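Tip: read the tokens left to right.
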């Protein structure tokens, strides 16, 4: 899986279908040689460097008259000859900023170690996983940089991270990318990223790579609504089913940067890591820095093939815990049903109907604690409001449990309200702040300073006490503002630019402690909807509330974009009322259900106000979910109609064992005299026979994939579901 040839000094990392190759050149610099479809192991490093372009830039000693400014570099730095974007930047004690990293050795071992304090991929007994650690040294300043690569052979995934040890005088890291890869002929590629804002997260965007640098990044303390920490580079003509695609994601919930620089010789330097904007990390002698982990996926099977690789590694080797492999709860959340205006009676009435239609769990959202009747007050005071819940959380949980349902609760532990809040009165300095500057509010609240140990301990203690006080089996962990005036009283001036990084380390410690202390509680993360939908949060909590926009049509776009790197098993998706609260649109209940069904399904409306007919439909949807949840959550997804570029959306799922296939299709905007349209499924066995439950007809896999199912659509927002069972012979 990982080989090193002592003579040629070439490292080759092989997954099932891909190879990643780099080598140590005569100058002791690491040259990147190849990332793509699987290669046999080759003999000479020079064989990979087919063209040696001479350049105007200075020439490196020992590089045979050519320049590292045009070579493909494995972990580039700035200050010598390579004039492109460096993967790492630092300033030494003498003010110089020219690290010259040279090869100093390597280690290969089976399996993979944990990244201290950070979420990361992991392996389990029996997995074919190997790790390579390459040591690079800047000798004059004794800065040791360890590049770590883990190969998940069967997953077709390679992960990378960087560990830095300062054995010399004090130095400041200004930027540390987790991965940087130089790819030839970048002009053939597009740059694809997933963007949006509150209520319309992760819409795909695709533009040709141009000469210069293009990137997406977040600067406000969270992975964010605006972009997600994932970028990919498909060939111009790559589609869902065909074409080369390079992709990178970062297991990190804070600010990130991801993008590419196409140089003037058509080499594209793709990179991903913690955003260097506003970042700085001082290393005293003996101190270390660990970067978050990047995940790298290459495929020739188009964007669909790429997504299926991401879905599997996220589901199986990033998500953890008891809920990773089991079907989770179909739930009812009271937020859009009551907002802050709930009573035990209202909740009980909702719970009665929830039980009737087969739901598993009721979630009490915002407003149950401190003084909290709107979003201006109370955050931080994590004790129950007895005016609203006279019998406490325990009493309410019992009420719900009596009906045979489970009870879940909302928290927003990283925040503090400056108004009507005991925590703020006692510890105003616990908010992120810069002395002498006015603190800006976001949703009327302040962000707690999680770079402080005492603040993190408080959160662990406060949340634990509540979870111990009642039978709470689900937690919605919300976070509703971005950071501003980022400063901490606990750090000296030269370390203030570490606050955001240390905040994430603090948050991860809190999440690790709570999720391991309460392994039977299902945690779902949320950040004003999908403002922190990322691989880091999924390591602690296997699902995320995808968006506050619950409109069925808007959700088609959001979930479509989200599905490029995140599996449906990670997307919270609920049916809400019409007219929709975010956009005012009316869509049929069936369609709202069919949009939410593939995600982590639930309702977010007042069930007690539904008609009998609506409740019957809701019950039917819950029944389908209970049967087909495993197909959506562990099966393979094939995107068919792209809602961003057509009037339709459609997709099919194939169960893990291939025996069940579900086709879902939706009309977004119909037309009169509509054209003939067929939905051609993907991923089936062409030879097999499939029976369609809806019409009782038999189809061969080849027919379904090549002819497809005719679509006689008429109205906007219509939707259809077809379930096919594969016949056993
Ligand atoms: C934002 C979340 O995204 C909503 O679902 C809801 O929980 C509110 N916060 C509560 O304040």
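Filled-in amino acids:
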């Amino acid at each position: 899986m990982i080989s090193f040839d002592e003579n040629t000094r070439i490292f080759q990392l092989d997954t099932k279908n891909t190879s990643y190759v780099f080598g140590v050149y005569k100058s002791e610099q690491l040259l990147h040689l190849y990332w793509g479809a699987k290669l046999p192991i080759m003999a000479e490093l020079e064989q990979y460097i087919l063209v040696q372009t001479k350049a105007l830039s200075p020439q490196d000693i020992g590089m045979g008259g050519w320049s590292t400014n045009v070579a493909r570099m494995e972990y580039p730095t700035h200050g010598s000859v390579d004039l492109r974007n460096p993967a790492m930047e630092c300033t030494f004690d003498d003010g110089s900023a020219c690290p010259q990293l040279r090869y100093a050795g390597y280690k290969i071992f089976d399996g993979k170690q944990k990244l201290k304090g950070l979420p990361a991929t992991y392996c389990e007994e029996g997995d074919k996983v190997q790790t390579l650690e390459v040591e690079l040294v800047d000798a004059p300043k004794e800065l040791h940089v360890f590049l770590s690569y883990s190969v998940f052979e069967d997953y077709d995934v390679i992960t990378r991270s960087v560990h830095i040890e300062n054995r010399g005088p004090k130095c400041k890291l200004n930027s540390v990318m987790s991965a940087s890869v130089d790819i030839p002929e970048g002009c053939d590629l597009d740059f694809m990223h997933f963007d949006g804002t509150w209520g319309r997260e992760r819409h795909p965007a695709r533009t040709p790579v141009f000469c210069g640098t293009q990137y997406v990044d977040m600067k406000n303390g969270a992975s964010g609504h605006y972009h997600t920490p994932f970028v990919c580079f498909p060939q111009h003509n790559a589609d869902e089913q065909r074409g080369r695609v390079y992709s990178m994601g970062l297991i990190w919930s804070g600010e990130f940067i991801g993008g590419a620089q196409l140089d003037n010789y058509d080499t594209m330097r793709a990179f991903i890591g913690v955003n260097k904007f506003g970042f700085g990390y001082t290393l005293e002698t003996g101190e270390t820095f660990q970067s978050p982990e990047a995940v790298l996926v290459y495929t020739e099977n188009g964007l669909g093939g790429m997504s299926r690789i991401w879905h599997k590694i996220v589901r199986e080797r990033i998500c953890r815990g008891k809920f990773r492999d089991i079907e989770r709860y179909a739930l009812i959340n009271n937020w859009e049903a009551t907002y802050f205006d709930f009573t035990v009676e209202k909740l009980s009435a909702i719970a009665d109907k929830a039980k009737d239609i087969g739901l598993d769990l009721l979630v009490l959202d915002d407003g149950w604690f401190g003084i909290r009747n709107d979003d201006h007050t109370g955050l931080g005071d994590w004790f129950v409001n007895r005016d609203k819940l006279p019998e406490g959380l325990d009493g309410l949980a019992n009420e719900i449990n009596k009906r045979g349902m489970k009870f879940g609760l909302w928290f927003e532990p990283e925040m503090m309200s400056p108004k009507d809040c005991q925590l703020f009165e006692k510890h105003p300095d616990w908010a992120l702040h810069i002395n002498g500057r006015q603190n800006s509010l976001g949703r009327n609240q302040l962000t707690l300073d999680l770079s402080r140990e005492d603040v993190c301990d408080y959160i662990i203690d406060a949340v634990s006490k509540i979870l111990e006080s009642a039978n709470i089996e689900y937690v919605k962990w919300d976070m509703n503002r971005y950071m501003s005036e980022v400063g901490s009283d606990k750090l000296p001036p030269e370390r203030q630019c570490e606050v955001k990084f240390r905040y994430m380390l603090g948050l991860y410690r809190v999440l690790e402690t709570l999720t391991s202390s309460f392994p039977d509680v299902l945690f779902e993360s949320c950040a004003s909807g999908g403002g922190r939908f990322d691989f880091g949060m999924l390591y602690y909590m296997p699902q995320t509330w995808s968006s506050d926009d619950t409109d069925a049509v808007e959700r088609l776009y959001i979930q479509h974009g989200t599905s490029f790197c995140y599996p449906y098993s990670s997307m919270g998706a609920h049916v809400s009322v019409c007219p929709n609260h975010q956009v005012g649109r009316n869509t049929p209940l069936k369609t709202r259900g069919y949009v939410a069904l593939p995600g982590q399904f639930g309702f977010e409306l007042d069930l007690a106000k539904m008609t009998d007919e609506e409740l019957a439909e809701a019950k039917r949807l819950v029944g389908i979910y209970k049967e087909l949840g495993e197909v959506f959550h562990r099966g393979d997804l094939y995107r068919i109609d792209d809602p961003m570029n057509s009037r339709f959306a459609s997709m099919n799922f194939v169960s893990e064992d291939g025996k069940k296939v579900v086709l879902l299709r939706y009309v977004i905007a119909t037309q009169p005299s509509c054209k003939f349209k067929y939905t051609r499924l993907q991923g089936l066995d062409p030879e097999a026979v499939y029976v369609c439950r809806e019409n009782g007809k038999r189809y061969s896999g080849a027919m379904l994939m090549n002819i497809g199912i005719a679509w006689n659509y008429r109205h906007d927002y219509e939707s259809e579901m077809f379930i096919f069972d594969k016949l056993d012979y």
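The chain has a mean pLDDT of 96. The CA atoms of residues 598 and 632 lie 5 Å apart.
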